[in-house]
Design a protein that fits this description.
This protein is an all-alpha fold. It is built from 21 helices and no strands. It has one domain (about 1-405).
Length: about 400
């Protein structure tokens, strides 16, 4: 009970300070301090791990990735590329509302920390016709960016799950693909219900060359995907190559180029990214995450509670996709099995963890996208809670029908 109260305190302080509109980076750091105090991590170990997290290769690489993603977004927006992409999509899709979903969903095929930032300027460009609120723009960009993470085999969390459970990844993807369909459907229901239909613009007509315009308008993104998936380059290297090439082929003036670079190196976002990684490190070394997954014994009714609670709360607290798999799944092995696992239980644990990720204020995609659109997180949550509930309810229904009642 004491452990649960500590975890509840960490979550409540996090949510309370966010509601008070404190800077999210500062909130995460203060929550790191609170975690250290509650789980009795001494000052020396706290300071050493904060410093270690700040200068770790993982953190520095992530900061580089986020800055380059921001740079590509600003570059394509400044060059009018997103406007041309939206104009071409208007000619290719029958319902213009789909433009609010398709680009983010496509970019979601590229596993990338804070990858939602690539789609944000496109949604911004497309949303102008409806004058959508910041919360709705944040939701559409954020939700459709993440519909693939249940079943797209290039995501690290799925790769880790397959390795830990010792089952072919294609088997996990097969069992969880219906949740990708469900997530996409839930998002489209929200889209069509809350955004009024507007007829295609009078001068729009389907032309084959518009397909080429879509690809050419965001060629740095396609190049990045090619470098990562075909040439197997490191994500940071691939983004670096694409960014350098934009400078080589750009016709912008030196002043415009320098302005885009300065705009991309956002101190606020760098500090936010660093704070997320510090928070994650303190949760790990303090024993807070281990405590969550050890509260309930792994048998009987409590096993089902553990299948939900362990991955969900790890995901909610860290906001890091790999964390809920890497931390919770090894402890869930006695319940799920290894080699010949119970795929229904595996699916339930994975969906529970990913729902925690989607709702986590520490999730970089959510934090950075909300910051980009200047949206209040509480307004985004009012929208986000419904499709997340649909996905989680479906997972509960599956486990009740095929395990509890069978």
């Amino acid at each position: 009970m004491a452990i649960l109260l500590k975890i509840a305190a960490i979550i409540l302080v996090l949510l309370f300070l966010i509601r008070k509109k404190w800077d999210l980076g500062l909130v995460l750091f203060l929550d790191s301090v609170l975690t250290a105090v509650l789980f009795k991590l001494n000052i020396r170990d706290f300071a050493r791990n904060v410093g270690g997290a700040l200068i770790s290769g993982e953190t520095l690489s992530l900061i580089g990735i986020v800055v380059l993603v921001l740079y590509l977004g600003h570059f394509l927006q400044a060059g009018g590329n997103f406007r041309r992409m939206v104009d071409a999509l208007k000619n290719l899709v029958h319902d213009p509302r789909l433009i609010l979903a398709i680009p983010s969903a496509f970019i979601g095929l590229l596993p990338m920390m804070a990858g939602a930032m690539m789609g944000a300027p496109i949604v911004e460009e497309a949303a102008g016709r409806w004058k959508l609120t910041a919360a709705w723009k944040t939701f559409f960009n954020y939700w459709f960016r993440h519909i693939w993470e249940y079943s797209w085999p290039l995501y690290i969390n799925l790769i880790l799950a397959a390795a830990i459970i010792q089952v072919p990844i294609k088997r996990i993807c097969f069992y969880q693909f219906p949740f990708t369909i469900l997530a996409a459907s839930a998002g489209l229901v929200m889209l069509f219900k809350n955004v009024p239909y507007l007829p295609p613009e009078e001068n729009s007509r389907r032309r084959f060359r518009d397909v080429g315009k879509v690809f050419w308008s965001i060629w740095p993104i396609f190049l990045t995907i090619l470098l990562i998936f075909v040439l197997k380059l490191n994500m940071l290297v691939a983004l670096g190559i694409s960014s350098v090439l934009t400078q080589i082929f750009s016709r912008m003036s030196l002043k415009e180029r320098w302005g885009i670079i300065l705009q991309s190196v956002s101190l606020k976002i760098i500090l936010l990214t660093s704070a997320v990684m510090v928070f994650k490190r303190i949760l790990e070394v303090s024993g807070a995450l281990d405590s969550i997954v050890r509260v309930f014994p792994p048998h009987g009714v409590t096993a089902y509670i553990l299948l939900f609670a362990a991955p969900f709360f790890v995901g909610l607290l860290t906001g890091v996709n790999q964390a809920f798999v890497a931390i919770a799944f090894p402890i869930l092995l006695p319940i799920i099995g290894k080699g010949q696992p119970d795929m229904i239980l595996l699916m339930f644990a994975y969906v529970s963890g990913f729902c925690g990720i989607l709702l986590s204020p520490a999730h970089l995609c959510l934090a950075l996208t909300a910051d980009y659109f200047k949206a209040e997180l509480k307004d985004v949550y009012r929208i986000l809670i419904w499709p997340v509930s649909v996905v989680f309810s479906a997972a509960v229904l599956v486990i009740v029908i095929f395990r509890v009642l069978s």
